[in-house]
Design brief:
280 residues, mainly alpha, CHAD domain, 78% helix
């Protein structure tokens, strides 16, 4: 993404406050619950923290030219570590949801194994987030956001439009690759591109690119949810296999994944708004 030269001190109060507020909100939603990790942690808390870590990362990259390059690299490195640590817990929580739905024999053994695995993953996440909090990392992120040299409204909208074009091109590339191969690997790459595009649309909306983005965001969100459901059952099936769970449960998870995959394919046939070019 390239930004035109910025005038010294140029600030667009009408546009800057929403996008600055958007990034600060994601920072607070990510790190605000950290003290609560000392006790029992509900799956939804982990889920929201992980989602906000992703949104914050995409949002910072979206306007990367507004931040010092070296500082942004270091911040994004720590945020990636945070996303991975929270993701390890979240994956196990999703596995548990799928396993409970499957029911049948072997549930008690799997529950005991899951509890041990989740405790280990949660301990690692606690350690990392505790270290980041002790080092004042959340305040460092907030300071970087507040100190950004925000451009004028026109420049901000132009930067958002350019970044959206790049994300959309990546989305289209991954979609074409998936259509050619339709492998699990290509599906995963496509799913990640969909996720990044959605969060990019949200950042663009916060930058004031236009109210017409709402319907686009809803369409991309629906696609992301469908692909996420397919991925959830795939990961749960792999987990049950890894701990030598019952064959009947593996078969059930396989069937449920196929059902979600059919819903995903049906969506692609009837819906194209998620891929259409964003109007300037």
């Amino acid at each position: 993404m390239s930004l035109p030269p910025m005038r010294s001190g140029a600030v667009a109060r009408k546009s800057v406050r929403p996008i600055e507020g958007y990034l600060l909100e994601k920072t607070h939603r990510l790190f605000g619950p950290v003290p609560r990790l000392a006790g029992a942690v509900a799956p939804e808390v982990i889920h929201q923290m992980r989602v906000n870590s992703r949104r914050l990362r995409v949002g910072l990259r979206f306007f990367q030219r507004l931040f010092p390059a070296a500082e942004l690299r270091q911040v994004l490195r720590q945020l990636r570590r945070t996303t991975r640590a929270l993701g390890a817990v979240r994956t196990l929580d999703v596995n548990a949801q799928c396993i409970r739905r499957a029911g049948g024999a072997g549930g008690a053994m799997l529950a005991a194994r899951w509890q041990a695995d989740r405790a280990e993953a949660l301990a690692a996440a606690r350690e990392l987030l505790g270290m980041l909090r002790a080092s004042q990392f959340p305040a460092r992120v907030e300071t970087m956001i507040r100190a950004a040299r925000w451009p004028g409204e026109g420049q901000l909208r132009q930067a958002a439009a350019e970044q959206l074009r790049e994300l959309r091109q990546e989305l289209k590339k991954r979609y074409r690759q998936y259509r050619r191969e339709q492998s699990s690997h290509r599906f995963h790459q496509f799913r990640i591109a969909v996720k990044h595009y959605r969060y990019g649309l949200e950042a663009a909306a916060a930058a004031g690119l236009g109210g017409h983005l709402r319907s686009r965001i809803r369409a991309v969100e629906e696609l992301q949810d469908l692909m996420g459901a397919v991925h959830d059952f795939e990961v749960a099936r792999a987990y049950v296999r890894s701990v030598r769970g019952p064959a009947a449960m593996i078969d059930w998870l396989d069937t449920e994944q196929e059902k979600r995959y059919e819903l995903f394919k049906a969506f692609l046939k009837k819906e194209r708004l998620w891929m259409k070019k964003v109007k300037q």
